[in-house]
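User: Can you predict the 3D structure for this chain?
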Amino acid sequence: MARSASETLSPASTASLLTKPRASVAPVKSSSLANSEIPESIHNQTHSVLAVAAWHSLAWLYVANLIGVWLAVLLLYPAAGRWLGEWSYGRWTPVHLNFQLYGWMALPLVAWAIRIYRADREPYGLWSRTALILWSLALTIGAVSWLNGKSSGKLFLDWTGFVRVFFPLTIVFLWGVLAASYRHHWQSADNRSALVRAARLTGLALLLLVPFAIYFASDPGIYPAVNPDSGGPTGASQLESTLVIVMILFLLPYGLVERKATGRKWIQTAWVIFAIEALLCLGLGRQDVSHHRPIEFISLGSLLVWVPLIPAYYSAFAWPSNTRPWRLAAMGWWTLLVPAGWCLFLPGILDRLKFTDGLVGHSIMAMAGFVTSILILILAVLLEEDADIFNGRVAFFAWHGATFAYVALFLVAGWREGVDPGFTMVPGTTRDVLYIVRLLLGIAMTAASAQWFWQLTRRMRSRSSLPLEALFHWSASVNPESHPR
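Assistant: Here is the predicted structure, written as structure tokens:
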């Protein structure tokens, strides 16, 4: 957060930000990595590639939300499933989840990597667009596979058959584009530091592991450590996965915005605490351990230190003023997410909420609340002057209001379901009212995502004055010799 770590999101301040006329919004001040002394023609090319990445991201968010609405309809009126034959609730669910994860949540990070390694400039811009199309094609083929009942049966790792190979190969193709672009820009001014070179080379090495990890993790015979009393993850595995998220949060500002001159203290403090937490995580091991063991929930409670530290860390960077609503939203959700996650793991609470909608509610808080806010923050910086598509007051409050209500609804339903497992299965007035509200909230979130998607679509079409196919920019490659190395 750009002003202070103690800023909070108030309706009045946020509304005033969201309703400012476009001319009064300060332009995005991106980091020197991407925009320092860049000729106008090259700047237009980079913006074009990043806009295409944002378009793919928002398209998958919109489609995934539409499927989510359909799933809500099926819960309320199961007979509607007859309209689509074998494409039942159980087959649509992995499509919905994977579109959210690999479509909406992954592609903004892909756009960030394209920016970091300068693959948004020709001659690599064309290959980056190709990688984005291949990525969306892999998701489409995956959807056909899952709808036809072909799945590994593992949540978020449903890849099987041909698409289990095709999707990792798509990531390898993207890696090749990033690596080639980085080699091309090896002598650029922002890459002369040994530390920067080491960091980017490490990033490429880690990215190359991802496709192999996805391929092997999709094997139905491979599973991580399991909590024997809940059937879910252990405290150690949750600590490990959260620290991975913290690491990603550490890296995201770099390549997007400049660090403040006064921000070094918070950044150094955060990295020292992260190192201590990582040692704690290594010491816990990966055995099948119950959440009733004090060491499990006490060690997981160490994550509470990040509730103030992540906002403080982000306050160390000079964020564009027109991203402030989404930064405040992200930090607000983070402040709720970490303590709620720890409480839900405590003995007694987890025993009642396991296998219920209560844990689903926490997942929605994480994905629709915190992660979506962070991703839109990234896209807003990358889109620069087009960031105003995310600052519509109605869509902003519709998304966050519906998400908050969704989480509350699921926690209430899960708490009831913990003592009455038939509550969400047997039709009744209370259950049906909850499902109707759930459907309406899903429609509100879908409408918000539709507004962002169509606004970006219109913006891109108005610039090119071409048909919709021009969004993919297959035309007019630029002479690579005309660009400085």
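The beta strands are 258-259, 317-318. Residues 76 and 435 are 6 Å apart (CA to CA).
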